[in-house]
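Friendly challenge for the regulars: who can give me the structure tokens for this chain first? No prize, just bragging rights.
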Amino acid sequence: MRRQDGKGSDFPTEARRRSEARDHSSAPRRLGAEKCLGLCLAALALFLWLALPLAARDYPPDVPPPKAATIPAPVIQVLPNGLEVVAVERRTLPLITLRLVVKVGAERDPRGLEGTAALVNSLLTEGTAHRTSRQMAEAIDAAGGLVDNGAEWDSSFLSLSVLSDQADLAFDLVSDMAARPAFRPEEIERQRTQTISGLQVAHDDPVYVADTVFQELVFAGTAYSHPEDGTLQSVPRIQAADLRSFHQRYYQPANCILAVVGDITAADAFAHAARFFADWQNSGPLPEQPASTPTSSSARRVVAIDKPDAVQTEIRIGNLAVARNSPDYLALTVANEILGGPSENRLFKALRSREGLTYGASSDLVCHRRLGTWMGKTFTRTPETVKSTHIALEQMKSLRDEKISENELETAQSYLVGHLALDFETSDAVASHVLEMIQNGLPMDYWTRYAGELRDLTAEDVRRATERYLNVDHNVLVLIGNASEFKKDLKKFGSAKVIPLSALDFAAPDLRVPGEAGN
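First reply, four minutes later:
Bragging rights claimed.
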């Protein structure tokens, strides 16, 4: 029992003092007994572990296969102005998410004005004809909302999540931001300054430089061959008229999809969309998708960006891959898991576990609407650049030329199926995946069939896909580091181009600032 004085401090009673005194006097004996018991249990555990067969100690216990995630079926309705509305009921929480997708992204940036799509999208949340940026932010905060937006390669998006009793506000805000952005001069300059500042920092970041140079080389000759956010040369050239023209041309309801996910019926979602988006009208025919053909090469392209102060080298190796709706996409997804994914990672095992050359190695399969890339990536100490690159190439060649093991196949399949539930954990994630399915022309039951089709893949299916798409002889190799330390050995990989980081220009066809000499 305790009693408190007027100031809130508490005093133990006399009975408590006696009890605590007894506890302290017996503590050494009790601790000694506990220590003895703990040592005995530890010894017993060690004995049992040593008694296990070696195989049982090397591998974790068997677990049942993961269950496939249940994906709610979307319901679709098209408004008279052409806006496609997709509703997905998800009653787990009293939340709704509106995610509006415009079916164009950075691939439609005008030549010389790279970064236009990203700048237009960034300004959607910075004021409309009816609201200032401050008023919009305050309205979203007052509703406990969360807004997100961005421009990707094939699309641009605007997402707003709120409590379900704030549905009217959510539809009002999203329709206002999408249809009537103000493009006020002060907001344009603020966003431009932030973009340029970010690009200046990124230009000295080896990871960003490696990824961007790889992308430029792999996608050469296509609309994907420039940085999504633009370059230090292009962003300053973008004018307010360019932003308004891009918005008027592409931000049309007939070129958009609105996903409504969460605690709302499909009927209510369609009624709200009709009420708040009906006044949004199309401005004219949509421009056709520009044709582009990747630049082919009969030999490996090797580019080293010289960063003299670097103590390690960023390495990127890869080639073109498939579009998102390719029949080979699932087989390549499994192959990518085995090459450099979280479940099975040959690159990590070879470079880190066996050789100790790096702290990380992975691979990325990125598939856009028309093209994709498959890239292995790692980093290493400068003196180990050539050795690490050689090992990475060996692992990629082995994956292409040899059949994967059944254990690798099963592990990768189980990881991908089990991870699917996490991909649909939030309403915004559900909206994103449903929109991805629609944009890429995938069947409406794609995610329902995903787990079954993934498990049906055989090792031979994976081998055929890697043999076709993993090109280790005609790929792109990018190295970012102190090139003076490994330049003489680059000829082992093919004819190489060395560009000083100070002379690097992502907007130039040869990646070099005009007039700058190099090797």
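The chain has a mean pLDDT of 88. Residues 2-58 form one domain. Your move, everyone else.
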